[in-house]
Design brief:
Layout (H helix, E strand, L loop, with lengths): L1 E2 H8 L3 H9 L7 E2 L6 E3 L4 H12 L4 H9 L3 H33 L14 E4 L3 E10 L4 H15 L8 E4 L9 E8 L8 E3 L3 E8 L5 H14 L8 E5 L12 E7 L2
Antiparallel strand pairs: 1-3, 2-3, 4-9, 5-7, 5-8, 6-7, 6-10, 9-11, 10-11
Length: about 260
Amino acid sequence: MLTISQFSKIAHITTKTLRYYDEIQLLKPAEIDPHNGYRYYRSNQMATVFLIQKLRSYECSLEEIKKILVDPALLKSTLERKQAEISEKMVTYASLQALIDKDLATLSDGGLYMQHQEKIERVDSPQMTVFSIRRILNVQDFSELLTEVFEMIAQEGMIPVGPPLSIYHSPEYTPEHYDMEFAVPVAEANYKTYELAPRPCAKLHYKGNYERLTEVYMQLSQWVEEQQLEIVGPAMELCVTDPNTTSPDENEVTIYLPIE
């Protein structure tokens, strides 16, 4: 048996961490002296420590690790899931790297945030008959809303007649419970559709990586302020291209920001 200090030194893990693992029942000592409360560990428990450390390096949560220690059969599926998550992050970081390269290239031309100004117009938003679903959801689940809308359109036998649009109704950014609407222009006008009326808007057609949309909205807000106007409604994004089949830098979206 090893004292907590001896075990800590050999396994390269702090005694503070070992006590915490004991507290959350991730790794319990082999024995605890009932008289003085000293913790003792067996040498074979180091294998568990090494597994925990390896899984932590793979960005597994302690809760995920706890489940694996209870049921080792979960290890394979967990590693496969983490592998997929890391692959997704690599794609994201590659995209961010490309954006940084472009930002560095534009610094000499007056900064990062001026290239969209000349594309902003004052227009009426398009009038269209749409089928839509509006829901408060986590922004990460937006793709599920898209799928639901298209499934409903197919079930109802409706005919899409234009690119879909997203409408963001929340007055502030609350990603865990965001008020979002996804709409598709359709040929049919019935009780399941409604007429999206035209209204004065600031319009900007953007082509490029969606990672820059925050920058685009900043430019729109700046333009509205310079024109001594006010934003009076939710932003609408008309998705000209399908991001699932279009390379990130080739995506196109038309943004309408209601103004008066």
